[in-house]
Backbone:
């Protein structure tokens, strides 16, 4: 780790599978995700998520990039105050709805029914439960990507790899490639926030989709497995002490 190791980008994903939203800051709470991160998901056919008794389901239950790359053509924006989601493509608004109302969810579901018709196994259904995150893992964690690892992967692939393929909350510079993998079980600070490495992130076929073009044009999990014998890139971390982080905040071991 260099003395200038720091956060360079913050993102959240209010709806699982839809586009990232850059953040100027993120207030982190112990043992919680970034606020509104993966707060909503779109069931693909089976309507068995119970908001009154939420539980973790495998990602295949929902519309998601691993199987549904057409989603990457959309740009979405979620407004916290109105809880309204806006979906657009090429600068043109296609759908809008308040995700906390039946009418708003119906509007977004109706759009998805047409837009994703070739990928649907049944009726699309937006699901949400207060305080629940439809993350790929059951634990309430934040995800970190070491940009040096992405550059190392780019060299192996032979062309640039967009870091947004990895759909992380926090992007960091100033580390050696894969250095963050050594933080599992160890505490560290991002700015004034204390976190603890929970597990390396195993990559899936969602990373094969170009977030700008929606083309499925790489085999990142396969490349990682052939090169390193595993498919891991990035770190899940548990927030131990609350605080607010911003791009430019430093990184330090404890």
Residues:
């Amino acid at each position: 780790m260099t003395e200038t190791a720091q956060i360079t980008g913050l993102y959240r994903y209010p709806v699982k599978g839809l586009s990232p939203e850059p953040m100027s800051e993120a207030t982190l709470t112990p043992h919680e995700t970034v606020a509104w991160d993966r707060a909503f998901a779109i069931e693909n056919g089976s309507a068995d998520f119970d908001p009154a008794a939420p539980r973790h389901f495998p990602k295949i239950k929902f519309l998601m990039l691993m199987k549904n790359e057409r989603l990457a053509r959309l740009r979405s924006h979620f407004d916290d105050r109105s809880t309204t989601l806006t979906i657009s493509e090429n600068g043109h608004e296609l759908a809008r709805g308040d995700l906390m109302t039946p009418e708003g969810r119906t509007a977004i579901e109706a759009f998805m029914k047409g837009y994703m018709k070739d990928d649907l196994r049944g009726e699309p259904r937006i699901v949400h439960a207060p305080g629940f995150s439809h993350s790929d893992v059951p634990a309430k964690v934040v995800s970190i990507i070491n940009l040096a690892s992405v550059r190392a992967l780019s060299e192996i692939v032979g062309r640039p790899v967009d870091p947004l393929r990895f759909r992380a909350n926090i992007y960091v510079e100033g580390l050696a490639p894969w250095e963050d993998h050594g933080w599992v079980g160890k505490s560290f600070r991002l700015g004034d926030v204390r976190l603890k490495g929970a597990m390396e992130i195993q990559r899936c076929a969602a990373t094969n989709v170009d977030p700008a073009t929606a083309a499925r044009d790489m085999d990142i999990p396969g490349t990682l497995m052939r090169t390193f014998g595993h498919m891991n890139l990035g770190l899940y971390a548990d927030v131990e002490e609350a605080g607010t982080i911003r791009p430019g905040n430093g990184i330090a071991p404890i």
Notes: The chain has two domains: 6-32+137-253, 40-128. The chain has a mean pLDDT of 97. The longest helix spans residues 102-115. The longest strand covers residues 193-202.
